[in-house]
């Protein structure tokens, strides 16, 4: 036990020293994620909360933890995506915490606090969190299942956690490279400028067909002499305590912590069937396995044949009964908050003025992206004109239907009065399709927010 403790302390020191030397992630202080729609979509508590509970999260007195906050760029993103929340950040590196404080102050964020603290000691703060963001850190833990359990204990009963692990299969080349450079002694002490220079020199002089160089070296990043280049080499070839995991490993850790999967952050990229040319007509054995496998087993099978994602990135929470989407006349229809921006409002209204369809997936790509393509989701002119008020406020399904009938009282082909039943069915199909991508959120009257 003493040896394990000493090893754990040694690893903490190594990790702290590495991030004191190069706080991660590197972003210039003045850079803001305010227009990074995809990142704001992921960091907005509304996204996973709706996926789990089919309603909107509380809007007041939210407390959000950024566990392993690093340089504070993620904490800033969380603050902008959840403007009414208090942001709490913790990290091992004092220099990173200093930078995080400076960053949020610089951008005018007022409701935040930061602490130099290991994740495993989160209980010391005596907080219960609505949302925990543990991004790019838990794979460094000596015992990820225990770390995950500690975070779960700080989560409110209906709280949500985002966690990710390095994918063992996708980063196989990097791990061999890390072992190679460790054998050369470049990871013995905390890597600094000389070790970074040595890695760059070796990679530059390797023949182009050498696997390590051919498969995972990005010269456009690795050959840069600035902070971006330094970070690329540190995080891929000299990363202290870096480890990879499989989806089945992650499944066991969640079970140990008493948590359940909500959804993968990039959920369509993890669908096994979308690796086939016709996802609706896959080989029979694949369909049979899909029918009986757990989600984590399906992700594991997909990972074996196409380890595309660097991170096994997902949302989780305490087990609850699954919630179904219920669409009734009194259901409230919301646009996702990350679509209610000035950019989207201007573009939407401009397309209406020009009598064109509105390409909604151009403005929020994440829900429509698979491994090999992005689904093109557009609103035809009629639908875009009917749903336009959602840019400013939610509407009940009955109100949207009445608006359609008011704007288009006649069938433009036949000049007959619009068929109310046909329009009701059509509008239901449109809204349920948009809800599948989280472009709209459908909240039943029994769970109105």
Describe the 3D structure.
With 449 residues, the protein is an alpha/beta fold. It has 18 helices and 10 strands. The protein has helices spanning 2-21, 37-43, 46-53, 73-81, 94-106, 144-153, 172-183, 193-205, 211-216, 219-222, 227-236, 247-257, 284-292, 295-305, 342-353, 381-387, 397-407, 420-436; strands at 63-67, 86-91, 112-116, 129-134, 155-166, 260-264, 311-317, 332-335, 395-396, 440-443. The strands form 2 sheets. Strands 3-2-1-4-5-7-6 form a 7-stranded mixed beta sheet, with helices on both faces. Strand 1 (63-67), helix 4 and strand 2 (86-91) form a beta-alpha-beta unit. The longest helix has 20 residues, at 2-21. It starts with a helix and ends in a 6-residue tail after the last strand. The model has no long low-confidence stretch (mean pLDDT 94).
Low-confidence stretches are none
**Percent helix among the residues?**
40-55%
Element string (H = helix, E = strand): HHHEHEHEEHEHHHHHHEHHEEHHEHHE
Shape: globular
Class per helix and strand makeup: alpha/beta
Strand order of the largest sheet: 3-2-1-4-5-7-6
Strand content: 5-15%
- End-to-end Cα distance: 50 Å
Average pLDDT, to the nearest integer? 94
Count of DSSP helices?
18
């Amino acid at each position: 036990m003493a040896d394990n403790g000493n090893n754990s302390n040694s690893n903490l020191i190594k990790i702290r020293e590495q991030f004191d030397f190069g706080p991660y992630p590197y972003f210039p202080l003045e850079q803001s994620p305010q227009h990074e729609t995809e990142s704001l979509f992921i960091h907005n508590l509304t996204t996973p909360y709706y996926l789990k509970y089919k309603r909107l999260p509380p809007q007041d007195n939210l407390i959000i933890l950024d566990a392993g906050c690093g340089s504070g760029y993620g904490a800033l993103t969380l603050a902008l995506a959840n403007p009414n929340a208090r942001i709490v950040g913790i990290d091992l590196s004092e220099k990173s915490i200093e930078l995080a404080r400076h960053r949020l102050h610089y951008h005018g964020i007022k409701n935040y606090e930061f602490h130099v603290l290991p994740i495993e000691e989160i209980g010391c703060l005596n907080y219960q969190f609505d949302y925990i963001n543990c991004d790019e850190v838990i794979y460094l833990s000596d015992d990820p299942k225990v770390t995950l359990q500690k975070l779960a204990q700080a989560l409110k009963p209906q709280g949500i956690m985002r966690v990710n692990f390095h994918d063992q299969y996708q980063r196989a080349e990097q791990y061999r490279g890390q072992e190679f450079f460790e054998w050369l002694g470049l990871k013995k002490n905390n890597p600094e400028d000389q070790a970074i220079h040595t890695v760059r020199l070796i990679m530059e002089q390797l023949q182009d067909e050498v696997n390590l160089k051919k498969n995972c070296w990005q010269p456009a990043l690795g050959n840069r002499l600035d902070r971006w280049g330094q970070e690329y080499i540190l995080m891929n070839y000299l990363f202290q305590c870096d480890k990879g995991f499989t989806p089945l490993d992650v499944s066991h850790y969640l079970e140990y912590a008493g948590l359940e999967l909500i959804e993968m952050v990039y959920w369509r990229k993890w669908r096994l069937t979308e690796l086939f040319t016709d996802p609706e007509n896959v080989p029979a054995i694949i369909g049979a396995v899909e029918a009986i496998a757990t989600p984590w087993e399906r992700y594991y099978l997909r990972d074996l044949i196409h380890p595309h994602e660097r991170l096994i990135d997902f949302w989780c929470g305490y087990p609850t009964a699954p919630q179904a989407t219920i669409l009734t006349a009194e259901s409230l229809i919301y646009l996702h908050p990350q679509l209610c921006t000035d950019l989207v409002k201007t573009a939407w209204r401009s397309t209406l003025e020009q009598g064109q369809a509105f390409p909604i997936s151009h403005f929020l790509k994440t829900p429509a992206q698979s491994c090999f393509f992005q689904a093109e989701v557009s609103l035809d002119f009629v639908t875009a004109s009917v749903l336009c008020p959602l840019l400013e406020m939610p509407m009940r399904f009955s109100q949207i239907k009445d608006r359609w009938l008011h704007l288009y009282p006649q069938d433009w082909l036949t000049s007959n009065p619009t068929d109310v039943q046909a329009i009701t069915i059509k509008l239901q199909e449109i809204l349920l399709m948009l809800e599948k991508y989280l472009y709209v959120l459908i909240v039943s009257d029994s769970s109105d927010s």
